[in-house]
Structure formats: C-alpha cells, structure tokens
User: Fold this.
Amino acid sequence: MYDSGKVIIGLAVFACIFLFPFLYNRGTAAPQPKPSLDTPAIKALSEKKCVENTRFMITTHMQFLNDWRDQALREGNRWYVNSEGKKVWISLQNTCIKCHSNKKEFCDKCHNYAGVEPYCWDCHYDPNGSKL
Amino acid sequence: MAARILFPLAVVLAIVAVALIGGSIPFLQPLFSVALLYVTFAIFIFGFMAKVINWARSPVPFRIPTTAGQEYSLPWIKWSKIENPSTTGGVLMRMFFEVFLFRSLFRNMRTDLRSGWLIHSPTKWLWLLALGFHYSFLIIALRHLRLFVHPIPGFVETLDAVDGMFQIGIPPLYLTDITILLAVSGLLIRRLFLPKVRFISLAADYFPLFLILAIVISGLLMRFVFRVDITAVKALATGIASFHPVVPDGIGAIFFVHLALVCTLIAYFPFSKLMHMGGVFMSPTRNLANISRMIYHENPWRQPPKFHSYEEYEDMYREYMKEAGLPLERE
Assistant:
C-alpha cells in the first residue's frame, strides 16, 4: 500500500464517522418509554378510552391535534364526532389535558425520547404547573 | 424505453414489494430490520475499506494533477495557487473546494451549435442540483441520528429545528425534504431527457437515482401518510446501535420498505459509482501537488538496464570478425 499513513488515517476517520452511533451509545440501549396514564381523571373513568383508538392516537395525534386547532380556531367548529359517533368538545385545555394532566409523564416522555419539540406550548400552558 | 432504464426501476419496485410483504409478517420483521441492518453495515464498512485499500495499492509514481490554472513559474507570471497547486496547503485548499463545493462541476460547459457557430458556454445546472442533493442528503442523514443515539446530541436538535423552521404542516415538513426531492428529480430528468446524457447513461446510473427517489418518497409517506410509532422505531434503532436489538410491535410495513431501500443503497455502495465518496480523496488528479518539474520522480518499475558493451560484442564474434578481416580493438 502506498501512502499508508495517510490512507489509514483517512479510513480511521471514515470508520469513526460511520460507527458514530455505536461509539456514542457504548452498548447502552434506550428502551421505549411508556407514557404514564396514571392520573386521577383517567383512574376515575369507567371505560379507559381516548377520543379515538390507541394505535391511531399514538401514531397520528399530532395531525389530529393540528386538525382540532384548525377546526376550533379557524372554522369556529367546537364539536368533533369520533369514529364511534360520540361528540367530543374540541379543546386541548379542557378535553385532552382534563385526563392527561401529567404533561411531564405523558407528553414529554416520548417527545424527549424522539427529539420532538411540539409548538403546542408556544400558545398553551400546562395548567398543572410543569415548567415550560 | 430502454432496458437500462426499466431494469433498475423494476429492481427498486421489487425491493419495495419484498419489504412490504416481509414487513407485514411479524416473525419476519427481525430479519428485515436487525439482521438486514447488521449485514448491510458490515458489507458497507468492510467493502468500503477494501476498495480504498485496493486503490491505495496502485502505485502513482508520477504527478498527474489536472492543471486547471497557471502552474508555479517565474516570479512575474501570476501563479494560480489553488487551481494548480504545488504545495500541500494549495492541495488542501483544492481538495476543500472539490469536496465541499464541487469545484470541478462548477467548471461544467455546454456545447451547442447556434446559427452555424459552435458555442461553448458555462452551465451551472448540474453543479446546482448535485450540491443541493448532496447537502440535503447529508443533513437528512445527520437528522436521522436522533433515532439512533440517546441522549440526542445538541447539534442534531439544532439541525432539526433549523431544517423545520418554517413549521409547514404537522409534523413539520423539512426544507431538505423539498430540496432533495427537487434535486433528485432534476438529476433524473437530466439523464432521461437530455439526449447526450441519456446516450451515455447506463443501468448503474439510473439505479441509484431510482433508489434514492424511492427512499425519499417512502420516508415522506411514512412521515405524513402511513404513520408509524416513532418511539418503537427509535427503540429498534438504538437497540441495533447498542447491540441490544429489540423489535417492538406496532411498526408499520412502510418502515420496513424505507429501511430495505436504505439498506440496499448502503450495501450497494462499495460496489458502485457511489464510491466516489472515498474516491474523491483518492483521486490523483486532485490530491497531488504539481511538482513534476521541481523534484526528481523515479520510475518505480525501472529495472537496471542490460548493457551489451562493444567489448562483449567483440568477445562474442571475435573468431568471425577475424575471419572476415574486420579491425579488432583487442587481438
């Protein structure tokens, strides 16, 4: 091999860049967080059900909430009819947070894990006083 | 349409189909995620290194830089230090412009026949599309680190925030998503519709373009249409990157399609034209200083020449020469 010094340095840099995730994690896995449903309002529910099914809420809640915002603030429509035909009052503060009053243990857990910074809290505040 | 366009397209579609089926069957999911990624990564790292070492074993005894400017000469002749470097600093500058700004693509010219005249004119489209594509790809790759490492490094979060700063839609549409889509489409259109480029394009040219386009589209579909549980995806990715692989439930089939396409790209990398990533650094027309006439460069293959002196010649033919009456140096 010619210029082996330079080539080996170059290959070492290449390996460090592409193996960065392995070097950074150093064998410690970050397990999937479990958002807590442990709030008085949820405990008091006879049937533990969100506005739509869990799978839909996990994957699509952001688009759903965005839609709610548009309905409430731009269309002036405050009623949402879910897939079961039940009418729900469109409000983050009075519907979502009524049950999910634990922002830190519910919202933030997954958002921090996945590096997502939703702009809900640019306008809304957490009535239960976690620092925003 | 030519087979060299349809064949790579069919291969990409076949990968999508296989991954869609494999990703929909739960017991095949570990195969299509954990096993696939480890194998792919090993092929990439070792394949890349083997290729570079193979290149490094080829001797480049003489200086063959492209001389794109005035070489170092007399003091009153202006020397183009970067375009025709003869110092290490100049070479580093030249490599910087080549690697980060694609200097040689910026030099691109087109040749047309305009009202009977053969006109050469500068054209920057290829350079612009290439630069847009490569930087978008780099930023997208770095942004994906948020799914592979934990805690997430600050620069990844900053990049994410800057890239999504216009807050278009939910989840935010990244600017690089738009630029990579435009740039890759532009590069594909260039190959398909410019007759001169189409003439010299092969299946190996179309395949990476179709593959990258499919990766971008599957990624956008996963983000905006067929949504998946992102925490499950991150658990899978960090698990792989920390050698504690887990395959959580609830990852949609679209994720496995995206992953299979990315893995194809990575595994294909060392065997394809994509190796220009390593090749640009190994390129003797770029990384050599122009010192052809400043120092002595010896041919490494040179054997000591076999001389046949007149004395030896005479010794060989002495008898015959004497017989013929030719004059001899020695009797």
